[in-house]
Amino acid sequence: MMLRSLLLLPAILLGAGAALAQQPSWTAFHGDLFSTKFSRAETFTPENVGGLERVWEYRTGDVSDGSGELPATVWSATPVYANGTLYLGTPFYRVLALDPATGEELWSYDSESALEPLTQPALKNRGVAYWESGRRGGCEKRIFLGTMDAELHAVDADTGERCAAFGEGGVLNVNQWNQVNDVFPFSLLQPPMVVGDTLFLGWAGMDWQYSVAPPGNILAIDARSGELIWETGFVPEEMVSRTGTANVWTAMSADPDLGLVFAPVSSPSPNYWGGDRRDPIPLATSVTALDMESGEVVWSFQHVRHDIWDYDTPSAPTLVDIEREGETIPALVQATKQGFLFVLDRRSGEPLFPIEERDTPPSTAEGEVAAPSQPFAMTPSPVGAPLELPDVWWLADVVSLGQCSRDRESYLYEGIFTPPSEQGTLFFPGTAGATNWGGVAVDPRSATLYVNANRVVQIIRLIPREEYDQLAAAERGNEEGYSPQEGSPYGIHLTDWSNWAGMPCWEPPYGTFSAIDLTTGETLYETPFGRAQLEGFYGLESWGSPTLGGPVVTAGGVVFIGASMDSRVRALDARTGEELWSDLVEAPAVSIPAVFTHDGVDYVVFAVGGNTIIKPEVSDQAIAYRLERADGSPAR
Amino acid sequence: MRILCLLAFFPSLVGLVLAILFYFAPFGNTGVDGTLGALLALVGAAATTSGLALAALPWPRPPVLAVLLLATAVAATLAAIAGFFLMQYGFAIAMAVTVSVLALMLVPSSRGRPA
Predict the structure, then answer these.
(1) Distance CA A592, CA A171 (A)
(2) Is the ipTM of this complex over 0.85?
(3) A585 at the B interface (CB within 8 A)?
(4) Which pLDDT belongs to residue A478?
């Protein structure tokens, strides 16, 4: 117990103990180990945030729209503020250290990683991780950067020089632990979670490409040496010859006091047909708690059984204490692609609100047996209205001379969890989910949750192997929605449900922003959020926008969020969702902003990268905002 | 008639300049630069300005003039609508003013004899 306390001391100072720090910092992907995305910065209030000024802009130079030799970039990095410095990872797998007040580059590091789409159709990066030992000396403060080709680089946080004692000369080959079904490398697109002197690392793969793939696991790695401490897998041994993934590609959370790591585990491979994996995989598509020191599974909550919808657990669970009948319950909230918000006791995984077991439709696919029922979390209310397929949008139907209505009649839809089919299934919520990796923000003082949600309908069709192979011969690729699911009887085609002009066939809103009281489960408000944009034309405000990225809530009562199609970053009134401020940037800010205090001044910094699945525009902007006095000096 | 043409021409010219700016974005990102929608608005503004320039010339055949004015009004209207949905409200207002004057020009009593 004493040893554990000593080992966890840096974590208490850095991550979960943000409350103990003197200044609000932003040391992790979701701000802290609890993934609250809550900033204690108090300067920004609903009354003054309208005066936010752009104080500096930095161009990384690491951007591609995919039209040249390089794949497109998807820059979804959260800037990390630690050590008095702002750190950015880029989609060309470099690290940049900037002066937070001026945006001046202090140093840069290039991993010289091959810029190839090894496991993803684009070059993706969600940032870097920061570790410090608490001691003085070289490499006692480090930045960790992962690459597409399974390397974890460690550099000195003050100089950008490699930390030679880590791995081989500062580079750890994570693929050395990829020893089963190694058809693709462990792509490290999400920075590791740092707790004490341990890095907790997941990876991204290609669960749409193969049936048999590397089985998902988490690696616990020593932050100094790169040695493997433990490894925990999520696929039963007896099934690894038939399936794989069920990996952790997104961020994780941790509670050092409980000694638990919380892993959002994704779906098994292949994504959309499970005929070869009909035996239960209890840890797949779950939130699972692991003992921090041993990696043993302490509890697990599976929110989709026999997942054939790619309803990966897309974001880190957010840890929050909830008051109930005079008792403080250490809880967590797991947002899901289905739109359900599962609120669990994080000590045991027991639900704090009732969960209904509801019958779900059977599958018509060859060899498939869908789960007969699924858990439905109805309190809090699901976000994104996932239980009712939106009606056909009259405007898109008129423009397409009734194509949308004909689609509605010809494709299969029997409610949420309608399995993919050869006929074609209207897939709602789609694979991008009601919520995705941006997750939720929670104000721990009031246990109020904030979340942006999508309402996007897709069409998924299972294509028998022979027909798919003919299509493959015509050089269809993932970028056009075709995925082979090699080893299964079906490839798939997945596309948004839209008409010939690209207009969505379903009624708006396409995106919402909600606030929920986690103590009672009551939805405080839900409003359309953002504006959709197609070929330059904006939708009406009431239509909202699909979003990628997440919100940050501040102690002053403001929510900062990018995420929407219309390439605007916004400040909202946390009490009402009303927009208080916005700024036009170059591309959708598909990221989570960092909000922190540097030298007594509060800043909010967005990485503006874009994502070509939302809009063609991409960018390499990092933009900082702050409040200024009339004389131009920063407000404190 | 010529006076009305000039009254319509100037706001349409303003609209054309704005359309060039928001499509080509010489001073930085406009949110719609390079998009198909902005290009259509630019084409609409150019067609409007050109149509008004032609209408201002001595034009001996009123029926042809009426058709020209009607086509120009349609172009201006579509451009104004495009401007609204591009959130380029200055442009939309400029084109809306142009449409208003064109509407006056299309009233038969106002066409009378060229000034």
Answers:
(1) 27
(2) yes
(3) yes
(4) 55
